[in-house]
Each structure stands twice: as structure tokens, then as C-alpha cells.
């Protein structure tokens, strides 16, 4: 094998290992902690509570936002809150599923929001699906990244039968 092949083989083996992160069994104490943080995040967004968001989000926090853009960095998200792009008269979050990994807990769930006047879709009741990834950063759980998307109006997919 040439040195180039050795490096390439090592790189591929390392990347293959990244794709096999084992999901851990549920941890009810940690699950309760993460659920509380997830709901605290929703409250902080609803209230525009910058101090709480400073504690909950790392500087490199990234959001795949329902306004069809990727918001990188906590500062950009806080700017959208300051500009009124992210502002609600109602914000309800319902965590449904938690997935546990060595330094990450993924929360998947459902949200109902009503954007405030001046925000996109002001006054419209929006249902969203969301995924939040909480990572351990320096001994503290922080919301590393988030994806939220608006669900088109129509029949409730939960009424079609059991979810898998």
C-alpha cells in the first residue's frame, strides 16, 4: 500500500465510525432534565428572554428555521428576536420522543405557535414539527442545533393510526 492509500483507508475507517454512534437506553433522570430545558427554551423564545437564551444556547447554535433559512450563531438568532422576526403571542411545545447518545440528547416533537404582529405569518396559528439536539458543552446541556418546519394545514397525521 502506498502512503496515500494508507491515509485514505484511515480516513474512511474514521468516517465510518462516526456514522455508527450507538443510541443509548433511555435515562429517565436525564430525560426529565432535557425536557425541562426544552420547555425552558420555548419559554425563553416566547418571552424574548435574552439572558435565558444566553445560558441555553452555545455561540455556534444553528437553526434550520421555518422561515426557510439557516440561522447560524446565537447572535444571529438574537438579532431576529430583536427585529421582531421571531416573536409570538402563543408558543406551545410538546416533546414527544427523546433519543440518547453519549454526549447528546435529541428531542423530537410538536409545536403550536402564533406569530405576533410584524412577524412573518402574524396572527396565523401554525403547527410545527421540531427536532432539537442538546449537547453537553463544558458540563452544561446546551441546545446545539434545531430544525423546525411548519406543517401544512390538513388532517392530523396522528389520527391516521399509530405512529412508529
From TrEMBL:
Record InterPro entries: DUF4440, NTF2-like_dom_sf
One Pfam family in the UniProt entry: DUF4440
Coiled-coil ranges from the UniProt annotation: none
Domain DUF4440: 34-143
Protein name stated in the entry: Nuclear transport factor 2 family protein
Organism listed in the record: Luteimonas composti
Amino acid at each position: 500500500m502506498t502512503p496515500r492509500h494508507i491515509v485514505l483507508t484511515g480516513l474512511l475507517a474514521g468516517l465510518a465510525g462516526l456514522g455508527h454512534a450507538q443510541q443509548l437506553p433511555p435515562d429517565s433522570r436525564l430525560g426529565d432534565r432535557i425536557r425541562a430545558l426544552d420547555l425552558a427554551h420555548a419559554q425563553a423564545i416566547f418571552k424574548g428572554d435574552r439572558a435565558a437564551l444566553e445560558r441555553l444556547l452555545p455561540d455556534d447554535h444553528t437553526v434550520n428555521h421555518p422561515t426557510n433559512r439557516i440561522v447560524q450563531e446565537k447572535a444571529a438568532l438574537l438579532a431576529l428576536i430583536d427585529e421582531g422576526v421571531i416573536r409570538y403571542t402563543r408558543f406551545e411545545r410538546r416533546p414527544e420522543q427523546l433519543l440518547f447518545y453519549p454526549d447528546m440528547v435529541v428531542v423530537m416533537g410538536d409545536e403550536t405557535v402564533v406569530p405576533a404582529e410584524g412577524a412573518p405569518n402574524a396572527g396565523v396559528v401554525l403547527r410545527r414539527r421540531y427536532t432539537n439536539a442538546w449537547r453537553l458543552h463544558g458540563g452544561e446541556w446546551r441546545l446545539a442545533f434545531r430544525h423546525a418546519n411548519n406543517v401544512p394545514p390538513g388532517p392530523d397525521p396522528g389520527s391516521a393510526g399509530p405512529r412508529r
